[in-house]
Amino acid sequence: MTVLPETASTHVDVLIVGAGLSGIGAAWHLQDKQPGRSYAILEARGASGGTWDLFRYPGIRSDSDLSTFAYAFKPWTGEKAIADGPEILEYIRRTASENGIDEHIRYGHKVVAADWSSEEARWTVTAERADTGETVTLTCGWLFCASGYYDYDQGFSPSFPGAEDFAGQTIHPQHWPEDLEVEGKRIVVIGSGATAVTLIPALAARGAQVTMLQRSPSYIMSLPSRDVIADKLRAWFGDARGHELTRRKNIFQQRKLYSFCQKHPTLARRIIRKLTEKQLPAHIDVDTHFKPKYGPWDQRLCAVPNGDLFRALRAGTADIVTDAIQTFTPAGVRLQSGTELPADIIVTATGLNLKLFGGVQATVDGEAVNPADCLAFRGMMLSGMPNFAFAIGYTNSSWTLKVDLVCEHLCRLLAHMDAARTDTVVPVHDDPSAPTRPLMDFGAGYVQRALDQLPKQGADAPWHLAMDYREDVEHLRNQPLEHTALAFERRAARDLAVAA
């Protein structure tokens, strides 16, 4: 791990937490739209890339098309529309290197606390250094949290009866061993989400005999790994214009698909079922293994490029079982039905743990902030927290679409405050009777397990987290920055009051 040396400055205008997809994007927008403003990025790990550096399991890839998952400002030119993890990681790091962003990253700095002083109009941020264990402090005018929303230290793995009796290896995908040999091994993958459907064909291609063990099914859709229209648009108009046109096309398609599934769930179920049935071998029953209990897009749809999961099932290198686990045994897994699945390796693709804002403990003028007591303003700020913004992407579309809009809006807000000679802005929600719900109104397990930790959102804008790109374009890009729920403070007025 490389830990960059401390710079001479311990104060920056904007401090970004996290050097992943969101943090690198935020830095680019600041450099592009606020070039005179200083910033630094604190990254807890020893390398940039966030999710795409952390996860190393076979087949790791995006579950969104790269024309929308890539930044708006940097065209995706790779061959694959659904790209592999190493390609995405290289894209993120190339963006940082080409724009000098990596020179602003301090690796091995885990932010543990952030304290706001209204009198000084700044945050004091405490970070632990990975190389020495010492704590360092920096101050900033704005704190931008780009650390995502899950725990990088530990994935979610439920307690399985008999787990200690299993004689083979048990692995969580978040901690995949680099030297693991799978050829000729019998592998049971527990799970039915995006990680499981990615792992299974990749392991089968490496010579393993894989069984997908799910308690309940998920919606799985086959998508082409290449976007021929995107290829043609880039050839005709060049990378930049072709990227822009492809993004527009894919945003439109994503919105229409999501809207159709929400408005017509019964018809959507039938269509997905028919498409799935056509790709299955005769011995696998579609209604047993591919008929979820929830509606389409109540949870995220799993994408499989070129139907690779279905191809592995047809080839007989993978199988699928839908049942509950009774216990692990020395030789594998015994199911409630009495069937025993033999295994050399068990992979618990059972999900993630949510850790909002990287677990940073925040205070405002000495008072501890509980995020669960806050409401989200425009899906990027929290009530009662001055000069604080965060990036949480879409759950029903590409993450980066939302991040780009949030970063644009933050830069507009900074410019507005400069013009108005203000140094502090805080969202104020003063209607305790207003109805609220959790910030992420989503059926995924990692969200449901952490509802009590999440901030709240209201029923209407600006107090809700929109999951619609067009709505966010209107609110974050087009609407005026001033709002009755935003309290701005003028530094000059405070200085005069102190002088008097």
In short:
Pfam families: FMO-like, NAD_binding_8. Keywords: FAD, Flavoprotein, Monooxygenase, Oxidoreductase. With 500 residues, this protein is of the alpha/beta class.
Write up what this structure looks like.
- The protein is an alpha/beta fold and about 500 residues long.
- It has 2 domains: about 290 residues, FAD/NAD(P)-binding domain (3-Layer(bba) Sandwich); about 190 residues, FAD/NAD(P)-binding domain, CATH 3.50.50.
- Helix content is about 30%, strand content about 25%.
- It is built from 14 helices and 25 strands.
- The strands form 7 sheets. Strands 1, 2, 3, 4, 5, 6, 17, 18 and 21 form a 9-stranded mixed β-sheet that branches.
- Strand 13 and strand 14 form a beta hairpin.
- Helix 1 runs parallel beside helix 11.
- It is globular.
- The N terminus and C terminus are likely disordered.
- Keywords: FAD, Flavoprotein, Monooxygenase, Oxidoreductase.
- Its cofactor is FAD.
- InterPro entries: FAD-binding_MO (IPR051820), FAD/NAD-bd_sf (IPR036188), Flavin_mOase-like (IPR020946).
- This is NAD(P)/FAD-dependent oxidoreductase.
